[in-house]
Amino acid sequence: MAAKTNNNNNDSSALRELKDTIKSQAAEIDRLKKELDKSGIAVKKKVKVPSGGHAHGGAADNEDILDYKEKSSFAVAYERVPWLALFLFSLSFTAVIMNGFEHTLSKQIELAYFVPLMAGHGGNTGGQAVGTVLSALSAGIITRQDAAKVIGKEATSGLIMGVMLGALVGPISHYVMGISKHVATVVSVTFPLLSTIAAFLGSSLPFVCVILGLDPAVIAAPAMTSFVDVTGLLCYFLIANQVFKAFGLEL
User: Fold this and answer.
1) Which residues pair with 61 in a beta bridge?
2) Model pTM score
C-alpha cells in the first residue's frame, strides 16, 4: 500500500515538472515571437544600403523598394519619367555627333553598319557592371569605401573583354561579311576602349548615386546607357579618322 502511494507521489511530481517545463517553453516561444514581430516592424520602417561603412555613416534609404508592391503604375511612372526625359535629352547629342562626322560617313558608309552594334555592346557591358555592383551593394558585400577597387576591377575586366571580342568581331566582319580592312580595323580597335568606358561608367555610377543620396536602381542603368552611347559613338568616329589616315585614305 505504501509502495503504491509512493508511486502515485512520483507520478504526480513528474507530471508537475512536465507541466512546468511546457509552461516555461511556451513563455519562451511567446517572447521570441514578440522579438521577431518587433524586428519585422523595424525592417519595414527602414532598410539601409551600406555605403560609407558596414554599420554607420552615409547610408541611403531604400523605403521606396519596400513600398514598390503597393505603388500604382502611375506612381512608378511619375517617379521615373523625369530621369528618363533628362537622359533622353542627353541622347540627342548622338545626333550632333553623327552630323559632325557626316563627311566621314559619306566617304565610308560601312561605318554606319556598326553604329547599332557599338551602342548595343556598350549597353550590354555597362549593364552587366551596373547589375553586379547594385547586387553587391544591396547585399552589403561592398560599401562606398570599396569604390576604387570595384571600379578598377570592372574597368580592367571591360578592357580584357573588349580585346577578346574585338579580335573576334574584326576578322569576322572582314573575312565573312566582306567589310573593308580599314573599317574592320576600326571596329577591332574601338571595342576595347568602348568596353572599358562602359564597364567604368557602369560600376562607378551606382556609387555616385549612393553618395548623392539618389536611388541607383532607377538612375544608374539609364544614365550609363546614355553616357556610353554618346562617348562610345564619339570614340568610334575619332578612332575611324585616325585609322583611315594610317591607311592613307582621304576624308
Assistant:
1) 48
2) 0.71
